[in-house]
Every structure is written in C-alpha cells, then in structure tokens.
Amino acid sequence: MAEQAPLLRVEGLSRSYALPRQSLFRAPPRLQALQDIAFQIEAGQCLGVIGESGSGKSTLARAVLALDRPQRRHDAGRVLLKGQDLQALDAKALRRARQDMQMVFQDPYASLDPRMSIGRIVAEPLAALHGGLGPRGRHERVRDSLEAVGLRAADMNRYPHEFSGGQRQRIAIARALVSRPKLIVADEPVSALDVSIQAQVLNLMQELARQYGLAYLLISHDLAVVDHLADQVLVLYQGRIVERGTPAQVFGAPEHPYTRRLVAAMP
C-alpha cells in the first residue's frame, strides 16, 4: 500500500525580489527572501514558524497560498497540497485547490470590511469556492461557523465596529473556517490583541483543530504563542531554516546562536 502524502509539502523553496536599480548598466540587485526551504505538515498538525521581521515569514505564507508566481530565472522549489504542485495548476484547478486552505490575518480591524455585515464577510469564501451550496446552504454554513467560534447566528446582521478586537478575530477565523479547509495559514493571529484575549483565541484554534481536523501553518515572532499551539517548530533567519524540532527541543535546548538569542529574550 502506497504511503499517504502529507497534507502540505514544501520542497527546496527559494524566492527573491528585485531591489531598486543602482546603475543603468547593471541588472538590479536581488534580495534573497527564502533559500532552500523544505518541510511538511501532516493533517491535523500545527507547524510554527518563528523569526524576526525580514526573516522571510510573510514570503513563505504567500508562497504556500500560491499568491505569488515564481520567476523561472531566480526562484525554485515546489509547494504541494495533497500531492498537487500548486504552481503547476491552471487558474481553475488552483481555485479548487484553494477550497482546502484559508488564511487568518494579523489585524482583525483591517481584515474585515466595515461596510459589510458579518454574515456577508463570513460567507465571502463560499461565493468563490462553493457556488453550488445555494442561499440556504450558505446561510447554514455561516451560522455553523459563527457558532463554532463562540458567536451567535444573530450576529450575522451586525457590523464589525460593533465587536471587540477579540471578537473580530473570531469572525476572521469563522470566515476561514466556513469553506471547511484542511489547512489554515495564520499570520501573527493574536499579535494585535490584548494579552488577556490572546490565550482565549489560541485555545479556540486548538479546539477547532480537534473538532474539524485542521492543520495550521502558524507564523509568529512570539515564541510563547508558538509554544502554546505548535507541534513542530521552524526557526527562520535571513531566509533560511536554522533550527527545527518540537517546541521542547527548540525552546528547551536551542542550538543555533540566533535561536538562543530569541529564547533568552522570551519573557
């Protein structure tokens, strides 16, 4: 019997970006944002990626979600979701693949359109990914997603300004959950929240992972957040993976000097 492929596999991923041209007679210099990144995430697993600003975390998130197209001359590697190379898919096939992955952004204030009701905000992914559900099916899916994150069906008719920061992030999680993805990319999901609210949202994410079999790619600069949620940890430094292991291994006995500095600065 063939071994089942991991939910997400990243192989030899390298990404670079052109910097402003310094001479008319030379090609513009390039910033190597990621270099030879490789990892995998199994179904239901949380992989935490930590690193300072500029380490390549956001570039990695965009690559995993196939939001950027690699340049053949400068970039390399593959991102495979359930065995499918996302960069090799045409637009229609990529839309189908995106049913299995969603994103939760850092700022719950900026990521929700203030002119839209909560019901419309949460239903947004269904319009693109599940057009065959019909109005009743979409309504039931939105209701179930709101209730799963601790909100009420009646909240569908309210607007973002009527909610606190923690509640807004719950709405953002409900929007990610509504298409029933297999993978959620969470980019600094609690960094904009009060410390008293952060643990509540992280506990909610843990419960949803158990309930729906979700896997997370958790991107954060906060070691305590990653320690709380992650099964495995990658440490990114200047676009490279410099350390990997369980939270106990990475935080308890760091080997790379950069990781040791991060752990030493951890409250």
From TrEMBL:
Annotated SUPFAM superfamilies: P-loop containing nucleoside triphosphate hydrolases
InterPro entries recorded: AAA+_ATPase (IPR003593), ABC_transp_ATP-bind (IPR050319), ABC_transporter-like_ATP-bd (IPR003439), ABC_transporter-like_CS (IPR017871), P-loop_NTPase (IPR027417)
Protein's UniProt keywords contain Lipid biosynthesis: no
Keyword Membrane attributed: yes
GO terms for MF: ATP binding
CDD domains per the UniProt record, alphabetical: ABC_NikE_OppD_transporters
Keywords: ATP-binding, Cell membrane, Membrane, Nucleotide-binding, Transport
Domain of life of the native organism: Bacteria
Domain ABC transporter: 19-263
Family label: Belongs to the ABC transporter superfamily.
Protein name, UniProt field: ATP-binding cassette domain-containing protein
Organism: Roseateles violae
